[in-house]
Amino acid sequence: MLVTRITLPLLRETRKVDSVLFVRSVRGVRPTNRSPMPADPTDLLLVADDLTGALDASVPFRARGMAATVHLDSGAYPLPGPPSPGAAVTVVDTDTRHADAVAADAAVRAALRGAAPAATVVKKVDSTLRGQVRAELAALLDERPGPLVLAPAFPRAGRTTVDGVQYVHGRALHRTDAWANEPAAPPADIAGLLAPLPVERVPLGTVRADPRLLRAALLRDPGRPRVLLCDAETEDDLDRIAAAGHGGDGPGAALWAGAAGLAAALARLLPPGAPPAGDAAGGAREPGRALAVIGSASAVAREQADALAAAGFTAVTLDPHELLDADAAALEVLAAKVAGTAAAGDTVVRIDAGRRVGPHLARRLSRGLAGAVREALSGAGLVLVTGGETARAALPAAGVAALEVIAELEPGTVLSEARAGRRAPHGAAPRHIITKAGGFGDAHSLTRAVRLCRYGRTPL
């Protein structure tokens, strides 16, 4: 049933920008007297195996004033157009979390081909070590021989590394259910997961010792390929590792791997640039319809969909079994119906929670949902997507080739500006994207995000 809609328009800039609309976002809306950071856009390459991880790792760099572009095709970057002004981090989502080892190896190598030879490379890994970690680190070491500093701890999320073992809230990884949906058993220790790669452990005692000793442990024998596996229990431990591996005034480590905690520690080494947020209280606005696509089956995601409907969004509920069974023709008919509803105003599309499907069908269901919303996405000004699998399937289908990260609105909720690919029809891609991990936030996280982008203090 239709209720009163949110009608305030999505904030947009009136000033014409030649090729990328996000240029003002990099500098911030207010002028700053801080000096620009002297870095080439290809100086730092971050490679992630899923979109949620890519965005999580980008946010700390964006918060330091760097432009952060997440590319959705490891073999098709950089995109046409001038580079972003100021310092930048290039992020590539290889989408290989569920791929086989051969595909993961090829995707990492393809990502490296777009980077400068002297670039520092950070491989984002899952904090519970899911995915093709061994194959991807092996590709890095083969392409760029030398020591690779691995620190997979993410203390803020309860992930720590002690004696070369990964812990989740104090329990050894192999004694948790973190790998319940994985085809293999979780590793008892990290060196075993990485075998036969050469691994040297850097224990907590060394991490917390004199910084000169830690620096020597991380930077000796720069031409010998190996993994330096670092223990860490706290953010201070990660800061020590990042500072020591950075090398001070001398050459630092060129290869890094870790979870979002390490990315944040590396970002904290950078001098702060222009703040990403600005005051959106004034200025012209233009209308933009919002489309929310709720691909997560979590209870929180269901509550967020209900809150959007209560705020005036038209709710469209899809049967997951129909999405799984639909052929191309049936999916096209469904997509036209969804697009017709979305054309009338703000819309939230969700999966019928009463029709459960097994976790082994999640990726297939995400692809079906992406097909059902493809037409609707291209006409929206603001798109909200919950669930990393859903976002990864839906955005390329709508012509999005990259995301220019603007800011983290709430933990796990990231606002970006979309960039279309080379072959995308002009104007086909949505303008702004809000992505959110399915289980993050409270019932009103998405409604707050919409209102923030439309008429609150916003980074747009």
TrEMBL record:
<keyword id="KW-0808">Transferase</keyword>
<dbReference type="Pfam" id="PF07005">
    <property type="entry name" value="SBD_N"/>
</dbReference>
<keyword id="KW-0067">ATP-binding</keyword>
<keyword id="KW-0418">Kinase</keyword>
<feature type="domain" description="Four-carbon acid sugar kinase N-terminal">
    <location>
        <begin position="45"/>
        <end position="266"/>
    </location>
</feature>
<comment type="similarity">
    <text>Belongs to the four-carbon acid sugar kinase family.</text>
</comment>
<feature type="domain" description="Four-carbon acid sugar kinase nucleotide binding">
    <location>
        <begin position="291"/>
        <end position="446"/>
    </location>
</feature>
<dbReference type="Pfam" id="PF17042">
    <property type="entry name" value="NBD_C"/>
</dbReference>
<dbReference type="InterPro" id="IPR037051">
    <property type="entry name" value="4-carb_acid_sugar_kinase_N_sf"/>
</dbReference>
<dbReference type="GO" id="GO:0005524">
    <property type="term" value="F:ATP binding"/>
</dbReference>
<keyword id="KW-0119">Carbohydrate metabolism</keyword>
<dbReference type="InterPro" id="IPR031475">
    <property type="entry name" value="NBD_C"/>
</dbReference>
<dbReference type="InterPro" id="IPR042213">
    <property type="entry name" value="NBD_C_sf"/>
</dbReference>
<dbReference type="InterPro" id="IPR010737">
    <property type="entry name" value="4-carb_acid_sugar_kinase_N"/>
</dbReference>
<dbReference type="GO" id="GO:0016301">
    <property type="term" value="F:kinase activity"/>
</dbReference>
<protein>
    <submittedName>
        <fullName>4-hydroxythreonine-4-phosphate dehydrogenase</fullName>
    </submittedName>
</protein>
<keyword id="KW-0547">Nucleotide-binding</keyword>
